[in-house]
Amino acid sequence: MSAPTSSGTDLDPAVAARLRRTPDGLVAAVVQQHDTGEVLMLGWMDDRALALTLRTGRATYWSRSRQELWRKGDTSGHVQHVRSVALDCDGDALLVRVDQTGPACHTGTRTCFDGRDLGARDVVTEGTSGGVTGGVPGGGGA
């Protein structure tokens, strides 16, 4: 089952036209604490979720596991009050800046990334780039 797209939503057609969705009709939503810049989580939005988020000021997502819309905090009380939503340069990701109440992660941690570091080398403090230029091995920028 795919997430619904713009038909039947009140998403501004000009906004809908700028979105580059996955084949399932979704756009990644990077969620950031508005005042600290802390990355809290990654969610997915279809057009209805984005329209509800923009209209209500409460973050709403598409649950890929449950195949339904969910508004953050309705069951947990860990509400995300939206401060701003921006679309990236490619149109395939949103930056949702929120005021998070309580933990953002369903596991109870502040962010979905707390305690989950994969141990990447810190090339800046090690003083060597290891042959990586601009974040791409042997290449330029992204």
How is the secondary structure organized here?
Blueprint: H1 13-18, E1 27-33, E2 39-45, H2 47-56, E3 60-63, E4 68-71, E5 80-87, E6 93-100, H3 123-126, E7 132-133, E8 136-137
Parallel strand pairs: 1-6
Antiparallel strand pairs: 1-2, 3-4, 5-6, 7-8
Give a description of the structure.
The protein is α+β, with helices and mostly antiparallel strands and 142 residues long. The chain contains 3 helices and 8 strands. The strands form 3 sheets. The chain has a 4-stranded mixed beta sheet, covered by helices on one side. Strands 3-4 form a two-stranded antiparallel sheet. Strands 7-8 form a two-stranded antiparallel sheet. The protein starts with 12 loop residues before the first helix and ends in a 5-residue tail after the last strand.
What key phrases describe this protein's structure?
142 residues, alpha+beta, 4-stranded mixed β-sheet, two-stranded antiparallel ribbon, 3 helices, 8 strands, globular
Brief rundown of the structure:
Helix content is 14%, strand content 30%.
Quick one: overall form?
globular
Strand order of the largest sheet: 2-1-6-5
Unreliably modeled segments: none
Number of strands: 8
Kindly estimate the percentage of residues that lie in beta strands according to DSSP: 25-35%
Instruction: Please give the count of helices.
Output: 3
Largest sheet: 4 strands, mixed
Mean pLDDT: 87
**Percentage of residues assigned to helices:** 10-25%
What radius of gyration results from the CA coordinates? 17 Å
Give helix and strand order, one letter per element, not per position: HEEHEEEEHEE
The separation of the N and C termini measures 33 Å
Structural class: alpha+beta
